[in-house]
What we know:
Helix 5 (136-165) packs parallel to helix 9 (261-276). The chain is an all-alpha fold. The chain is globular. It has helices spanning 3-9, 27-63, 76-92, 97-123, 136-165, 178-189, 198-227, 242-259, 261-276, 286-302, 306-331.
Amino acid sequence: MTDAAERQITTPADSHDDIKLVVPTPTNAQGTEALKDITFGSIAGVIGKTIEYPFDTVKVRLQSQPDHFPLRYAGPLDCFRQAFRTEGIRGLYRGISAPLFGAAVETSSLFFSYRVAQNALQATVFRSKESISLPLGALVLCGAASGAFTSLLLTPIELVKCQMQVPLSASTLRGPGPLSIIASVFRRNGIFGFWRGQLGTLIRETGGSAAWFGSYEGVSALFRRYSYPKPPQSATNATLSLWQQMFAGAIAGVSYNFLFYPADTIKSRMQTEEISTSSSSGRRTFGAVGAALWRQQGLKGLYQGCGITVMRAAPSSAFIFAIYEGLRGWWG
């Protein structure tokens, strides 16, 4: 469990008693903690997204190559080379405005809902437990709940991002901006069109966030056990060093992106097929897009761009956790 979450959901035992009491957090304190989660999560998310965005652009372009056409890119390096040669560094950062907003929303929502889920479990299922920390399995469940909630906020933002990242045609000098894409989606498909690909985002965020928080908490617990083998220093609120936080965050980033990557590939195809192909066969379902991709490229197609995604996820996630925990530590 993160240090901030532990301070929020427990209170130390009275100095004259041996019994530890779990008490509800005052409403004003809950509001303060929520504000910290949103602010610190947003800052961490924006910095992490700035670091990883060129790699994310390459990932989306590899994922969104249309069916029944020769592949445009031979691999990540070829995609980087083509993008830089035709569009320059600005092409790799094209469409970053929506993702920066999305990163702030995603990261703040994940940390906020993760803490809320912990508080809920601590107040109900684990109310009678003397331990001040939740078991790892419960933390994984909290991570899954935070991802499911965040997916509802994230799908519309990612739809705009993915459509902005699709490579321009030879006759197009300038790609559409976020406002024009929003207007086009609403005109074609109405308000629910912004949640196209929601199933893929739900699968990725629910499973991925469970792996993200679970890996971070698990690796952090191992570091604490190794660094503080004797009580009371081995308690779960012991502060980790910066390199330990970043290492745990890097492992979390790899786990998040690798385990449920096929769902993200299918989602990206669903969200970009209207502008990356000339097909008029109508909108396909999550299962239909996945089946078509499997027939065309097999398992390799479902993991198209996974290598570069994992490569950028490790440093990005490391910075996200280190910045979030650092801000938490500085401001209490």
